[in-house]
Amino acid sequence: MSRLSTLALIVANALIPIAILIFASGFFPYKPFLSGLAEYEALDYGSVPEAPFDKVIFMVVDALRSDFVYSNVSGFDFTQSLITNGAAVPFTAHATSPTITMPRVKAVTTGSIPSFLDVILNFAESDTTSSLASQDTWLAQMKAKKSGNMIMYGDDTWLKLFPGFFDRADGTSSFFVSDFTEVDNNVTRHIPDELKNNDWNTMIMHYLGLDHIGHKTGPRGPNMIPKQREMDGIVRQIFESMEAEKHLQSTLLVLCGDHGMNDAGNHGGSAPGETSPALVFISPKLKPISQGFEVPAPYQEDFQYYRVVEQSDVVPTLGALLGFPAPRNNLGAFIPDFLPLWNKSTDKVQILLRNARQIVTIITAAFPSFGGEGPSEHCATLGASIDELSCEWRSINKGLDGLNDGKQSEEWLVAITKWLKRAQELMSSTASNYDIPKLVAGQVASIFALALALFAASPMVLKSFGNSLPILVITLSYGIMMFASSYVEEEQHFWYWTTSAWLMLLLLKCNRKKTISSGFLAISTVVILIVTRIARRWNQTGQKFAGEPDIGRTFLSEHRNLLWTLVVSTYLWNLQSLASRGFPRFQKLVAVMFATGLASIAITFKLAFTNEDSPELLVGVAKMMADNEIGVSLVMRARTVFVSIAICLLYSLGTGLGQRGPRNNTMKTIHDLLTLFLITQSRATNIPLLLLFEIQSYLLNNLDLTLIEAATTSLLLQYMSFFAFGGSNAISSIDLSSAYNGVSGYNVVAVGILTFISNWCGPVFWASAINLILLRLRMRGEKRVLFQYIAVHTMFVACSLLFVMVACTMLRTHLFIWTVFSPKYLYSMAWSLGQHLLINIGLTSLLHWLGGKYMA
Amino acid sequence: MSSSGAKAQSSAAKLSLPVELLPSEVARIFTHIHPVLLLSAYYARFHSLVADPVHTLLSGILPLAITQILYAVLCLPATGSDKRPTLKKKLNAPKKVSSDNNLVSKVFTVFFALVLSLLSTPVLAAVQVLFGAPITTHLLHTLLGSAHIALLAAFPLIYVHGSDSAKWREIASAYSPADEIFGGSVGCLVGAWLGAVPIPLDWDREWQKWPVTIVTGAYMGYVAGKLIGGRLLKGKRIEFD
């Protein structure tokens, strides 16, 4: 029986990743792309239209929201004057969610709509599938023209996306968002020389400073307008050179943002502010076709200033303006405002027709039925949108015969422009792309996982049904909650609400058992509940109230002395615990010295890191210490911390074997060292939370929990702490600030692990803390402790996964599918694969096994 | 394990019995009118509660207090009056207790229970804050809501059990046998807790605002708990295992 249930549990856990992968491959289909470079195909309209421009300067200002350039509170005075006199043509370029840099750069270079999968790849950038080296982009087209070099200055995302593409490049990385100036000066210093150079045809600049200011101080921060003036100055510098220098007279300057930002200065989601970056085409040559626009533009609440185009529309537009065919995977539509640049009506027809034919090849790849025989009139009656599109395409082709220069041609141009937009809409709507059999297969796999997990957990559940009832109810209600978008967005409320009640229940039970004195219990009750309440308020998270004042980000950044007192207390708590138990072979004094040394290495790193990452938090002694630091690089410091922790860990593992028995403290020391590592991976304002959790775990340790209580507590506190640390189900809440600690180059594995640890800091802490309780239960003679603990967790994970999958499938046409449910699925993946399989099973089993060695 | 089992058995002998209502016709009738009265009054004031919670909750305290006092005086055995033998007395000597004496002690008990309920209000508010009530805003809302919960949940308990410390220890670990009073109190608290569920939904309705749903949950939970405790599960105890 026990063998059978062990087997069931193993199979259940093996099924979890399988179910996740099958479902993900159906839900985020890998879009097949057409390979090879596009070439001009022969058409009956004479030669390819002559391109008005031969060089392009592509200036990306990260997070340049439309109103930063167009509204009346803008630092872009010079650009606005160009818009008035017609030398600049303004647009709002709609960016699709996820609004983070890499997928946006992909959209604006390939013209395609990047799949949601790119979000994951954005965090694993060296993945070759995310590289654009092998894809057709406008950069590849410009390179293929061989009319000049490619140069690039700014965000090194471009260097990762286009390895080996650029002849001259200087990449900057955005390690520290507190850096407002250095990242931009690194770009600007190259401009004067490059403007004199005549050897390039493409210059890309990507400024990060404005995005950093947004993240730090929001869109109305004090540094925002000066930064906009600085960017405006660069536009002026380039524009004046374009007027003065002969070799630049046919240069096109494109000023754009890759995405916008919301009112808190963050991005990633699909709020109007995040999806509305500015897009300006600038050249003296545009004056003849533009009468100028009114600036500053009247206030737009939804940031939709001037004509709204898709970001991908930049690609075919650049193609026509610079003279190359639209890249093969392009879904962008030529922006018709630029048609007057060509006089001959055949040129205009040709430009749009080439654009449309290129898109038709993609449509045909996706819908083989497209373009066959059929009606070409009364298209709206056809029902299915793909048939409608096909019908209209036939009608457009018909109209092509006997097209003349007059009004008829104008009408045809309007018709094809409309058709392009409709084709674009159809192809970017993802509804048609779900692979339903795979979605179902994923769900079936998770049903099996759930059934097996239930089978494995059933003896325990049946033996003490009353005790297991809370976890069963929590599991089921959590699953049901996945169908309501607001509960997914505000998931923290569920965990806070259940955790408070569960802790209360736990204390009531303890009161009945009468195993500890009622005085101590009363104090524990009050302290545990107060600590939980403080942790709840530490970081405002979710969607609706994410920007509201809280303890960590608002209160403590105003009371910085208190912040550092709490941070130091956290280190001291850890220090005293290590010193009193950590080095049993040495004398007390030596042990204290070791622990102090370790803590000081860790705390000086934290100070130096905070000095770079958020210098505004430093004050008083902390600031003095950070300022006086000698110039050891942060990478070195972080490595020193990690190596010191590792040495202490190895030492403890080695010496611990000396005196085995139930009083061996090695497991507690391992927990303390892990906690120190977690502290190192947390933002300064979150470090005190670990102190709160230490207090909680100390008190819970005395409550004499049973196995099922420990498992339930572990699950609840893991989720609760994740949200208390500021986590949520939104992509924009992923904290990357500690992801590069001790990593100098680009190392996917290291960065991945560090990112996970720094975002799942609370859950990892609780996995380790509850393991100490599990070990005590095991020492007391309880059987199959680890098995039952894992069975409870597997049951929850399998059930929640199943419900998330069902919700994503049923709501796949829901308005919020890409903004709420898809991110939730990604988070479920991280919870199941990372927290469940690696931490709750992997780490806990390892620690449990070690504990068995030391304490038996 | 065996030793703790023995302990449980020995303490089981001392466990209390569920509270019986007063053996009068009035008591039997009013205990049915009481929940109807509470719910219909609540229903009548609901719109006003949504529109102006502070004022409505404040003006509702006195009527609620009167209802609860009536309920206590008419239906419940006051603390100190001998509870257990009532049944026997009814059979043997129905009119033995001096009614004057009884009235004075009832008035005193009502007063005593009211004062203690008042004192428990800030404690209940603190518990609400620990469970997630806003602390920097809406304090008055929380306090007034707690006053209602105190009158619903605490007042009858205090009126019946007074300062019987053994009984209160049982109540504190939720191990009191189910009866109308204990059931109502547990129902009231659980209802208030469940009342928080609709708050995060993005329906943007006025009634989702603090503390409307909590108070609603408390009233509905109280009535449900009173019925369940007094009828369905009378005498049963909440077992966690």
From TrEMBL, chain A:
<keyword id="KW-0325">Glycoprotein</keyword>
<keyword id="KW-0808">Transferase</keyword>
<comment type="function">
    <text>Ethanolamine phosphate transferase involved in glycosylphosphatidylinositol-anchor biosynthesis. Transfers ethanolamine phosphate to the GPI second mannose.</text>
</comment>
<keyword id="KW-0337">GPI-anchor biosynthesis</keyword>
<comment type="similarity">
    <text>Belongs to the PIGG/PIGN/PIGO family. PIGG subfamily.</text>
</comment>
<feature type="transmembrane region" description="Helical">
    <location>
        <begin position="786"/>
        <end position="813"/>
    </location>
</feature>
<dbReference type="InterPro" id="IPR039527">
    <property type="entry name" value="PIGG/GPI7"/>
</dbReference>
<dbReference type="GO" id="GO:0051267">
    <property type="term" value="F:CP2 mannose-ethanolamine phosphotransferase activity"/>
</dbReference>
<dbReference type="GO" id="GO:0005789">
    <property type="term" value="C:endoplasmic reticulum membrane"/>
</dbReference>
<feature type="transmembrane region" description="Helical">
    <location>
        <begin position="746"/>
        <end position="774"/>
    </location>
</feature>
<keyword id="KW-0256">Endoplasmic reticulum</keyword>
<dbReference type="InterPro" id="IPR037674">
    <property type="entry name" value="PIG-G_N"/>
</dbReference>
<dbReference type="InterPro" id="IPR017850">
    <property type="entry name" value="Alkaline_phosphatase_core_sf"/>
</dbReference>
<protein>
    <recommendedName>
        <fullName>GPI ethanolamine phosphate transferase 2</fullName>
    </recommendedName>
</protein>
<feature type="transmembrane region" description="Helical">
    <location>
        <begin position="469"/>
        <end position="488"/>
    </location>
</feature>
<feature type="transmembrane region" description="Helical">
    <location>
        <begin position="825"/>
        <end position="850"/>
    </location>
</feature>
<feature type="transmembrane region" description="Helical">
    <location>
        <begin position="630"/>
        <end position="653"/>
    </location>
</feature>
<dbReference type="GO" id="GO:0006506">
    <property type="term" value="P:GPI anchor biosynthetic process"/>
</dbReference>
<dbReference type="Pfam" id="PF19316">
    <property type="entry name" value="PIGO_PIGG"/>
</dbReference>
<feature type="transmembrane region" description="Helical">
    <location>
        <begin position="439"/>
        <end position="457"/>
    </location>
</feature>
<comment type="pathway">
    <text>Glycolipid biosynthesis; glycosylphosphatidylinositol-anchor biosynthesis.</text>
</comment>
<feature type="transmembrane region" description="Helical">
    <location>
        <begin position="518"/>
        <end position="535"/>
    </location>
</feature>
UniProtKB/TrEMBL annotation, chain B:
<keyword id="KW-0472">Membrane</keyword>
<feature type="transmembrane region" description="Helical">
    <location>
        <begin position="103"/>
        <end position="127"/>
    </location>
</feature>
<dbReference type="Pfam" id="PF06699">
    <property type="entry name" value="PIG-F"/>
</dbReference>
<feature type="transmembrane region" description="Helical">
    <location>
        <begin position="181"/>
        <end position="201"/>
    </location>
</feature>
<keyword id="KW-0812">Transmembrane</keyword>
<keyword id="KW-0256">Endoplasmic reticulum</keyword>
<dbReference type="GO" id="GO:0006506">
    <property type="term" value="P:GPI anchor biosynthetic process"/>
</dbReference>
<comment type="pathway">
    <text>Glycolipid biosynthesis; glycosylphosphatidylinositol-anchor biosynthesis.</text>
</comment>
<feature type="transmembrane region" description="Helical">
    <location>
        <begin position="61"/>
        <end position="82"/>
    </location>
</feature>
<keyword id="KW-1133">Transmembrane helix</keyword>
<protein>
    <recommendedName>
        <fullName>Glycosylphosphatidylinositol anchor biosynthesis protein 11</fullName>
    </recommendedName>
</protein>
<keyword id="KW-0337">GPI-anchor biosynthesis</keyword>
<dbReference type="GO" id="GO:0005789">
    <property type="term" value="C:endoplasmic reticulum membrane"/>
</dbReference>
<feature type="transmembrane region" description="Helical">
    <location>
        <begin position="139"/>
        <end position="160"/>
    </location>
</feature>
<feature type="transmembrane region" description="Helical">
    <location>
        <begin position="207"/>
        <end position="228"/>
    </location>
</feature>
<dbReference type="InterPro" id="IPR009580">
    <property type="entry name" value="GPI_biosynthesis_protein_Pig-F"/>
</dbReference>
